[in-house]
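Box 3.1 A note on notation
Throughout this textbook, protein chains are presented in two layers. The first layer is the amino acid sequence; the second is a token string describing backbone geometry. Keep the layers aligned when reading.
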Amino acid sequence: MLVAAHGLPSWRLAGLIVLAMVFARTAAMTFNRLADWEMDKRNPRTAGRHKLLPFRAAVGMLLVASVAFVAVTFWINRLCFWLSPVALGIVFFYSVTKRFTHAAQFFLGLALSVAPVGAWLAVTGSFALPPLVLALAVLLWVAGFDLIYATQDHEFDKAEGLHSMVVKLGIPGALRLARALHTAAFAGLVAFGFFAGLGRGYAAAAVLICGMLVFEHRSAARLDVAAVNRAFFVSNAIVGALFVAGVAVDVFLL
């Protein structure tokens, strides 16, 4: 959004983009909860989730969030409105992929990768190369860190007969693939900075992002729950914050 608008767009448009993000994420995560309802009950890591949100309430939340997302896109522009069902289809589809493909992490990456494209379309009303490059980087980044997180479910996925990349490759192989994906993702972030015309602020942030990705994989290599959660939650939150900060410095200050 910031790159496409060369700063902040109108407060109205910025607010609509944030609302679209919130409603799409709520709809996607609620659909995921419903799709995995019975499976989550059997998984020790997720066994308590269904108690936090009753099934009927989750269905209502899914409907409200989905309708609200489509309604918000109507107020953004016509292209976003017509593409809104496609966006919902993509973010919902991830939740069923583990039942038939080992590539579920890549579909999760795809679900998150549509966000930068949607923000660009909201501002400009047209496609361009920079958001597509960023979308690819996001896809690879998300697939990599979700592989790390999925190592916690190795035994459960194996017992359930799920199509899990971690089961297919083994934990060491999955971690090697995650490193390769994050190397490619970092190259994608550098390419985005080039194509978007970003400069020193973004370059400095990219160096720090590289450091956080290295830290993430060193933490994950320890293979204990605390280290995996630290790699998944803390490292990636910092990567996201550094990315936004680097873009903001270039757009607003340099």
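The mean pLDDT is 92. Residues 119 and 234 are 25 Å apart (CA to CA).
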